[in-house]
UniProtKB/TrEMBL annotation, chains A, B, C:
Gene3D superfamilies: 3.10.450.50
Protein's UniProt name: SnoaL-like domain-containing protein
SUPFAM superfamilies xrefs: NTF2-like
Species the sequence originates in: Streptomyces tateyamensis
Domain (SnoaL-like): residue spans on this chain: 13-135
InterPro entries, per database record: NTF2-like_dom_sf, SnoaL-like
Coiled coil feature spans: none
CDD domains attached to this UniProt entry: NTF2_like
Signal sequence region: none
Length: 143, 143, 143
């Protein structure tokens, strides 16, 4: 099974990109989190939710973060099993699994259903990576 | 603690190899999954189960996949904490942790006991990687 | 979002370093585990626990390992979402998420609250990596 021709350096850049973005989200830094999307990014949660643009994504995430904080729940996003390929137009396509842990103040831990996520990453003007689109398929949605 | 002399490129190839193989399995593509094993691969689940050969592995996995699909359960395999060394005969020995999440149609999430897995990887004729043996020790089995 | 200037080889060395150290701990090899810390390492679990020195870390870990073994519980440490930067004095700062799975003899699986961990790694005399400090913030502790 031959896999990919993505350079090693790019693999690592992608790994750190995701770690950094989720640290920001889990730490409640919504402007930092949304800055890793393109201005016109598309954020979809199948089958129905669709956010378009950095601002809409930020508003939705702020609402979520505030709700969990009010409930005293600490969240962490874990990504894994990441695979990378190039799309025909030169973007980077990243497929991975995501799970979110919820820890209540009393220490009880629950997990949301896992998801399969497909991202398209592009280069920003400063040379860094940005998410141009993110499509999340929760395990409860038929693939 | 000095660790390994595995080249960086090989590390990444291995990482993507596992992501790809498990995406295929979790997506129900059994021929794609088994194609990542050698024809005479050995697949063991300690203490007692032992499958030999790509075909036997495929049949066992098809049965599992059909059973979970009938129960409306979506499964995802997560691998992590991977360590690589070379064996004396030049194969690649990979030791890692595995866990499997089960999501029911109502969104409830359960997890099977984690496992420690030891794989031996070899080169296929086309230059890609193949699993020559996989030995799974579930946490419920004394190490 | 530009991320880091850590060389790719160092990224992988760090990844394997953590896998190896946790395999040793989960396998009950406390001397092997503590050998990955500096002699005067600081091991903190917020808000209050603080161990100083390889010997104190080893004694505390031996106690934990013996307790879980007596209860028939198999533990595995999973690290993920790792981010690396250099500190001003040339050490390596690693921020990551950790979770621990507990499997009882009957196969039931529970998880401790996740943690955010910040490590500082330095070079040993033999060229390998060592943990100079580890600070663990469980999800139940306000960040």
């Amino acid at each position: 099974m031959t896999i990919t021709d993505i350079p090693t350096e790019l693999h690592f850049e992608v790994e750190l990109f995701y770690a950094r973005q989720q640290h920001l989200l889990d730490g409640g830094d919504i402007p930092g989190f949304t800055a890793a999307f393109t201005e016109d990014a598309v954020f979809a949660v199948r089958p129905a939710a669709l956010l378009t643009g950095r601002q809409a994504i930020g508003e939705a995430m702020s609402g979520l973060v505030a709700r969990f904080a009010a409930d005293g729940i600490t969240r962490h996003h874990w990504f894994g099993m990441r695979h990378l390929t190039h799309t025909a137009d030169g973007a980077l396509r990243v497929v991975y699994y995501a799970m979110v842990s919820h820890t209540a103040a009393d220490g009880s831990v629950t997990r949301e259903p896992s998801s399969v996520v497909v991202d398209e990453l592009v280069r920003a003007g400063d040379g860094g990576l940005l998410v141009a689109s993110r499509t999340i398929t929760p395990d409860t949605v038929p693939g």
